[in-house]
Amino acid sequence: MVTIMSEGGLVKRRSGHRARLTLSPNQVAKLDEQAHAARALWNLLHEWWTLLPKHKRTLAAANAAIRQARKDIDWLAVLPAQAAQAVLRTYHQAWTNCWKGLACAPNFKARFRTPMSVDITQERRMRIVRVHRRWGMVTIPKVGRVRFRWTRDLPIGRHADEGNRVTGARLIKDALGWHIAFRVQTAHLRPGVHPGPEVGIDLGIAVPLALSDGTEFHHGDWLNDKEKATLLCLEQHAARRKQHHKPGEKTSRRLQHTYDQMAGLRARAKRRALDWQHKTTTDIAERYGTVVVEALKITNMVASARGTVDQPGKNVAQKRGLNRSISAESWGRMIGMLAYKTVRRGGTLHKVPAPGTSQRCSACGATTPGSRQSQARFVCKNTGCGWSGNADHNAARNILHLYRIGLVAVPAAGRCSRQAHKRVKPATAR
């Protein structure tokens, strides 16, 4: 969700609604061609842009080059003209973010590591209609009429106006097939201040979310036992079949089919995890007015422990397993969901420094070695305290306490350890 405009008591927001498409084999082939053409156009545009002198790099020149390329190259013409213009706008925005210091410079897009996608920039070309309760129809340029699953009401027809309407869409392909993500602009009343209480949240692995008031949010495995056995069997089949392929040899259809089945199961697990995160963060945003989390440096936390040849790392296998568990929880995505959902309901999200929150006692404030006896148990070793409780609950209370006292208990070295890179916009906590 992105707030794009505010007028009086109304706030216009831009959000996305994703739905699965039902395509024929011919339509799938056409969409694949368009996606490959869009990726190739990006690469050609990047090469053209980087080879030109700086004073000649303009949007007008790039637009003229794209029009000429679509006339000279037949396979580029399969991409609609509006989708080609969308590639240009996205590429220019990537450079704008780079110049502002918000992101790295854009680069070439690889064939197998880049998600396949195509933009539809004009809503009037889609002609969205609802067929019945479960299905809708949409027109995709150069593909035709396509059915999609109707899971949420869209502002179309008599329900659409200047403040509530569909502004465009993006076609995306993943392991489960092609999907359409509608860009929806809606108008809402400006939210008042959320009356809910304050809460600190500790993100973990054994306990995914531990709140300072003692509430815990758990989830099970994303795949059931039968699906796990199927995935393991597919991985073993793929490993055996791969032994008969020489390096650089083209993958056989049978092995590629096995890879597709594995990707489908993993995509199913990812969608279940995303669904749990959406429901959990919505519940937290509705119940609490102020949410406090740790400012985690996840990239540093999942760094490899292999070391070098001269100085090899220790416990590499254990660290690799921990890194996988951290990545599977998707803490960054969870915090991002909390950020926009709390603001949408009139609440705020704050971040506090992470060092010491797990070792400090939330009752006396002392940090004593050996107080955290296990992953789940905390017993303060400070003389005269002796507080005991759940370790994650203790960390969540420390997180909330740091916010309430204004971070005065954080050592100066800990507050100043993060130095913003030159021209990089610092991350601000709401």
Can you put this structure into words, describing what you see?
It is a single chain. The protein has 430 residues and is an alpha+beta fold. It is built from ten helices and 15 strands. Strands 1, 2, 3, 4, 5, 6, 7 and 8 form an eight-stranded antiparallel beta sheet that branches. It has a five-stranded mixed beta sheet with strand order 11-10-9-12-13, sandwiched between helices. The protein has a two-stranded antiparallel sheet with strand order 14-15. Helix 2 packs antiparallel against helix 3 and helix 5 crosses helix 8. The longest helix is centred in the middle third of the chain and has 35 residues.
Features:
430 residues; 38% helix; five-stranded mixed β-sheet; eight-stranded antiparallel β-sheet
State the helical fraction: 25-40%
Class from helix and strand fractions: alpha+beta
| Extended strand count | 15
Oligomer: single chain
Strand content: 15-25%
Which outline best applies?
A: globular
Per-chain topology:
Elements: E1 2-7, E2 10-22, H1 25-51, H2 59-72, H3 81-99, E3 116-120, E4 129-130, E5 135-140, E6 144-149, E7 165-174, E8 177-189, E9 198-203, E10 209-211, E11 216-217, H4 225-242, H5 253-287, E12 290-294, H6 298-301, H7 316-329, H8 331-344, E13 348-352, E14 377-379, E15 388-390, H9 391-404, H10 412-415
